[in-house]
Amino acid sequence: MSDFSPGQRWISDGETELGLGTILNVDPRSVTVLFGASQETRTYSNRQAPLTRVIFGNGDRLEAADGWHLTVDDSKEVAGLIIYLGEDDQGERRELPEARLADSMQFDQARDRLLSGQVDRNDWFDLRFRTLHHYHRVEQNPALGLSGPRIDLIPHQLYIADEVARRHAPRVLLADEVGLGKTIEAGLILHRLLLTGRAERALILVPASLTHQWLVELLRRFALDVTLLDEQQSLAHGETNPFESGQLVLASQDWLFANPERQAQAEACEWDLLIVDEAHHLDWHPEHSGPGYRCVERLAARVPGMLLLTATPEQMGLTSHFARLRLLDPDRYHSLERFREEEQHYVEVAEAIDALECLPQDADERVRVAAVIDEPDSLALLDTLADPQAGPEQHVTARDQLRDQLLDRHGTGRVMFRNSRRHVGGFPERCLHVSRLELPASYRRVLRRLERDEDYLDELLIETGLDHPDVLVYPDVMYRAQPHDPLNTEPWWQFDPRVTWLLERLADTGEDGFADGKVLLIAHDRETALGLAEGLRVLGGLHAPVFHEGLSLVERDRAAAAFADEDEGCQVLVCSEIGSEGRNFQFCRHLVMFDLPLHPDQLEQRIGRLDRIGQRHAIQIHVPVFADSPGERLLRWYREGMDAFSAPHGIGSEIYAAFGDALAESLLDAASLEDVITETRMLFEARQTERNAGRNRLLELNACRFDRAEAVIDAIRELDEDRALPRYLDQALDIFGVDSQELGRGIVHLQPGSHMLDGLPGLVQGEEGFSATYSRSRALARDDVQRLSWEHPLVREIMGRILDGAMGNTALALLKHPAIPGGRLMVELIFSTHCPAPRQLHLNRFLPPTAVRVLLDESGANLSGKVSFTGLSKALKKVRKATARDLIRSRHDQLRDLLDQGEAEAERELPSIVEAAQSRMRRELDSELSRLEALAHHNPAVREDELKAQREERAALDAAIDSTRLRLDAVRVIVTVGEDD
Ligand SMILES: Nc1ncnc2c1ncn2[C@@H]1O[C@H](COP(=O)(O)OP(=O)(O)OP(=O)(O)O)[C@@H](O)[C@H]1O
């Protein structure tokens, strides 16, 4: 191209964001352009410069470098430079030489780009329209944020995620029984909040031993890229706050709770959500609370959303449990006494819920319901339900609504979610195998003396520094604590029969043996675990990795990975108590409790490693005990006092508080043990009956409302089975330059093509790319295959780039049609609703960008209703860019008039779009608001700030929707060609 002259204004085709350029220099080979707004200079080859001359036409409004505006009505050319003539905003006639146009004039808007002759590929325009269409659809799906994660669709988890993530700044305790998927629930909530714009930054605090597992789960299941922060990483940030280094930060509790400076840095950041796993460790006492509790308490006061996770909420006692509820909602949980008192009425509420099923047939049951309700809306529903004249449909609706109201208005339901195996169902059986072994002489010697001599216990405690009753229950620990005893010369594992017992079982292929599967072994003490591993190696030649608190995180993960490997992995993993929390070991079927923990909740945590979602076998729990030892008595207490091995019952903590001391006393005294067991059993049965009738029942009914869970699952399935996604993605990948290769069985491999556009997640030039599938079940079966969904980061990135940028917002194509003579012009205009609002309002659920298409022929007739987008698109032929530019230049004025007319046509559709969005929003938010207001009367768990936020949100949404405008998003010029052209 040789017609460049210094001073002319041109724009870069590939980098429109640089703004308007000025030719600085031209020589026979190259042309140099200054882009003043971005302070960039580019030199291009003179022959192939990807530049378009910017020439405005009559009616265009221009901005001058010194800020005034000119509406053009004429132009002239002087020495190759254009001078625009027209009127300024005050109506004065002025001239504006092109060299004095503002550098900052924007050229990404479709109108400007088109009129300045910039056109994109025709298929880009198609993709842009389809993107708008699908985005509009998907954003309104109620399952948005829940459909992308690579998980099985398990009702209780999806119910909780949906219920919690729709709340303003949710603050809840996720307290499902062990292994039912609290991590998954927290991940789902986080994912949905992020995708819908309700949260942007989250801090996740987990025990050190679980950091890696969380990191992997969040990446593998939720495609969330999390920054794992530790001291080493933090030091690398020098003076800057390391917690600012990512949007999602994962850190170890052990590290943060011990480090006041780092805590101050974490507190100094803005977070939307705080997640704390294994929250039962946050212990609180009136005189002294633990450092973890204090740290979380300070964060809780600043961070609006909070999820606490624990399977054993009362493990540190009821007071600590209450204190954690208070962290979530200090207004609601201010008095422990009152909390206890409320619990007394749960039975009546649960009975009233059951009574609903008997109405209207059994009129007497009405009284039971009426006894617990007094709100007029509930009473009206009860009247309908009890009225035999009402129709069956009315009965069903009234029953459902009343049930929801009863659940909503009483109990801890809004703050605490606890699903149990009993309620969820479908979990494997637990089988207990006890092996009685003879007490070795070295242990017996001490125990006998303890039984005979009361003072010896005190001496022993002082001498060993151990606690009571640990000294009794862990004889190998006691043995090791007396290294100076001349009789204690051998390592304990050399004579402890549990070691040989274990070796025999590991090798045994018979019914009693462990040879058919992996074995997780948990011992209370780290030294026991280490010694045992040594014993296995020396006595049996067996290598067993050890997992304990003394290992670094990397070493722990290595040990767990060595165990998990299906083909190469070791048969047994030896863990100290630290292995009994949070880790996923459901691929094992044998659990060996080398000794027993002293707290029932700890016992349940141990079993929970295997008894979790994904376990496919009955769980074999093996306990070797020494005959007539304190360990055997402890076992009896667990079995006979509370059936601790058969199923979780959630009252371990209360039982331990009541009988822990008496039990410790009776471990040496078989006679008093009988009484402890009898009394434990009585309390256990009484509490269980009480809780199952009241609190547990309410918690269960509240933790999963199956009909609502089903509705969420249906919405997810709709997205899962959406056949439009593969079609859309095929086209998008092709345009973005991603190569896709079918691998068979529904799996494709995606990798960067040679012309791939940069910055697509998971695809880097020169790297392999990734394999993926649209099928949920296939993705679940194969860790190495990602799942493609509308929520996959690659799909979101592609859609975002198209919608936020200018890609494909102008095009020109030819149409050959026997009925239309050549040389005619048509324009296809795509308008989109534009409605600026803060992201956290999640406006898209009511009014996502909505396309309005207008198709005009050159006479201005609107053909949109007659000619569909797809029909027209199929008939179009592409054209060279240079020809397109010439065509546009020659029809500039006519095109501008058509654009103006199209705008007026589209505007006519706006009111109905706004009205529909407004009524959708009001319907949903008003009913939620009235539900919340009614609830607040009864259940103080509704926080005042929640109500306030809900009202403000409604007002803000109303205003935002009201201010919706239409913006021209894309335009395609269509030129007809005759049969002979
Ligand atoms: N919906 C699901 N789809 C697939 N796997 C799941 C699902 N829910 C849970 N799992 C798997 O089941 C195991 C237990 O889940 P998770 O770790 O979330 O339970 P948890 O309640 O947090 O356990 P714990 O009480 O031990 O902390 C994990 O391996 C998890 O990946």
Automatic annotation (TrEMBL):
Residues 494-663 form the Helicase C-terminal domain. Keywords: Activator, ATP-binding, DNA-binding, Helicase, Hydrolase, Nucleotide-binding, Transcription, Transcription regulation. Signal peptide: none annotated. A motif (DEAH box) lies at residues 277-280. Pfam families: Helicase_C, RapA_C, SNF2-rel_dom, Tudor_1_RapA, Tudor_RapA. ATP binds at residues 176-183. It comes from the Bacteria. Residues 163-331 form the Helicase ATP-binding domain. Belongs to the SNF2/RAD54 helicase family. RapA subfamily. Transcription regulator that activates transcription by stimulating RNA polymerase (RNAP) recycling in case of stress conditions such as supercoiled DNA or high salt concentrations. Probably acts by releasing the RNAP, when it is trapped or immobilized on tightly supercoiled DNA. Does not activate transcription on linear DNA. Probably not involved in DNA repair. This is RNA polymerase-associated protein RapA. It comes from Halomonas korlensis. The gene is rapA.
